[in-house]
Design brief:
Order of helices and strands: EHEHEHEHEHEHHHE
Radius of gyration: 19 Å
Strand content: 5-15%
Number of helices: 8
Largest sheet: 7 strands, parallel
Distance between the termini: 48 Å
């Protein structure tokens, strides 16, 4: 009796024909996710409030790219952007809620209302508005994924990050809510929580990759900071058929930060 299991080959991730909408797409992480999706064959709709930053990415005229600049906290603008994607390409298969603002470091009582509202309006309410806009089409198709890019600070606290952390915790909860509400209609929802990643924002704050690593890496069991491509490739896996039974959970790409 032959009990040898057949050999299995790893298959490259194929998103050919898929339509992916990404918010905060002009930033380093959003752009890395967009490029990973394009490399896998997807068409991508890039959404960002900064038209200039989008233009600098050099996607004008690319057949597999649409670009929109609008305020994510504007419900009508979110609906209009999704409507234009659906009119152009017929559907939205994946929404990546990646847009985020980081408020100045301040203890909870020292935050002003504008700072609190900025974090919640963009990071959380904007994600809900975009999710609300894409879900009707996903429900008609009986398939789709909402992927919220949260943060390790949605699960653990850091001094002076009350507004940011609260918004990211809300993103984790929102993904779970969508997953539970629409799992029986073939829709998945997840959150992805990066730790500190070497982005241009981090480099501006610390002055160099070496300075950022020296300041932050000792907090991580992995002994280093993350790379945007590591996060992007994890997002790509979650979009793939290999992750088809994963929904309603948070995946931390944080070098072990939340394990201690």
């Amino acid at each position: 009796m032959n009990t040898t299991l057949p050999a299995m080959r790893a298959q490259p991730i194929d998103l050919a024909g898929q339509v992916v909408v990404i918010t905060g797409a002009a930033g380093d992480l959003g752009w890395a996710i967009a490029q990973a999706c394009r490399a896998a064959g997807a068409r991508v709709a890039l959404c960002d409030h900064d038209a200039g930053a989008l233009a600098e990415r050099g996607v004008a005229g690319c057949a597999d790219v649409l670009a929109f600049d609008f305020d994510l906290a504007d419900a009508a603008a979110a609906e209009a952007a999704v409507g234009r994607v659906e009119a152009a390409w017929g559907r939205v298969d994946v929404l990546v809620n990646n847009a985020a603002v980081v408020t100045p470091g301040a203890k909870v009582c020292d935050l002003d209302l504008a700072q609190w509202r900025a974090a919640l309006d963009i990071n959380l309410t904007g994600a809900w508005l975009m999710s609300r806009a894409v879900l009707p089409g996903m429900r008609r198709a009986r398939r789709g994924l909402v992927l919220n890019v949260a943060s390790q600070l949605g699960s653990v606290a850091a001094p002076g990050r009350g507004a940011y952390g609260s918004s990211k915790a809300g993103l984790i909860a929102l993904a779970r809510a969508i997953a539970v509400d629409y799992a029986d209609e073939g829709i998945r929802a997840l959150s992805l929580s990066p730790g500190a990643v070497l982005t241009s924002r981090v480099l501006r704050r610390y002055g160099s990759a070496e300075a950022a690593t020296a300041a932050l890496a000792p907090r991580y069991p992995a002994g280093r900071l993350g790379d945007v491509d590591e996060v992007a490739q994890t997002a790509l896996f979650l979009m793939s058929g290999a992750a088809g039974f994963i929904t309603g959970t948070d995946l931390r790409v944080d070098g072990g930060y939340t394990a201690i």
